[in-house]
Amino acid sequence: MKTKLVIFGLTGDLGRRKLLPALDSLLEKNEISPDELEVIGVSRRQIQPFEILESSLGLSRAENSKLSQILSFFRNEFSRGNRIQKNLKKIPSR
User: Fold this and answer.
1) What is the DSSP annotation of the chain?
2) pLDDT tens across 56-84, in order?
3) Which pick of 10, 41, 46, 54 has the fewest CB atoms within 10 Å?
4) Phi, psi of 21 (to 5 degrees)
5) pLDDT tens digits for range 16-71
6) What is the CA radius of gyration of the chain?
């Protein structure tokens, strides 16, 4: 069974500058297998998975990243009347 890593605010500074490069590095060094992990980004802003990888890793690295195989993206606005548990059920799986 795959581990699902849900990252809230993936389009933010922490996600782009630290989390995605760290995950990319672990995948590149084969410390994590793409068969074992699914990364699901959640944000208020709609963006394609490749766009966030390009923004984080640069174009050439994003094109060859194993992370592109396991990254999906889900846009949702979590407001007071919009419960997290209810919305997590809507997150698509690969």
Assistant:
1) --EEEEEETTTSHHIIIIIHHHHHHHHHTTSS-TTTEEEEEEESS---HHHHHHHHH-HHHHHH-THHHHEEEEE----TTS-HHHHHTT----
2) 999 999 999 999 999 998 887 666 555 56
3) 46
4) -60, -35
5) 999 999 999 999 999 999 999 999 998 888 888 899 899 999 999 999 999 999 99
6) 13
- Contact residues for 3 (Cβ-Cβ < 8 A; gap 6+): 36, 37, 38
- Locate 93 and state its tokens: 């799986």
Report the alpha-carbon distance of residue 73 to residue 34 in Å, rounded.
Answer: 16
Which residue is it, tokens 């699902």?
4
Task: Tell me the two tokens of residue 92.
Answer: 């698509």
